């Protein structure tokens, strides 16, 4: 109970819970919409989803400052590739949060002359760039982990295996794929924060891909991706050691 109270006392913790609720509503609404006798439930889920989405906008009002702080921290990263990716990703997140704030100001009626569609597309575009750069950083980190695991494995082997059997090209390709997947599995298993960050970013990018028309999805896929991403985010907030650290 104490851990739950500490979690909900954090703005990020409350935002993750609201986000999980929002995407759960989206997923359930997609699953129940085809059923004629569930229209009342669908309407309630839609209203709840809208209310939670509005509530989350209040939590995100201060995220511009947090994104700027992330830029300052990223500058001190020792590895060049993560440093560039993190700085550019954070810059795009700053622009995204600014666009999001402008859209929120319009939604509450404080400014009526704002072109909602234009700012919505700008927000989606910069959110997409931020996630894409984060995924590039994840892939780079994964490649380093795989290289390290392969190096450790080679050191443990006393001598290279000699197989007298002759393989076909298809057999060699299958063996290479199996070795690659096994190495990837061992690398991610050894580094859970990297696995969580990769899954989170991959699931998050489905939404802007759909909004920008780059890859169309249905609300069910976006809802499921958002729910998985939210759970990953809840884990990183509840257990800070599961957050991917900057080198």
Automatic annotation (TrEMBL):
GO biological process: peroxisome fission
Cellular component GO terms held in the UniProt record: peroxisomal membrane
Alphabetical keyword list: Membrane, Peroxisome, Peroxisome biogenesis, Transmembrane, Transmembrane helix
Full protein name: Peroxisomal membrane protein 11A isoform X1
Keyword Lipid biosynthesis attributed: no
Annotated compartments: Peroxisome membrane
Domain of life: Eukaryota
Membrane-spanning parts: 220-239
Encoding gene per record: PEX11A
Main location: membrane
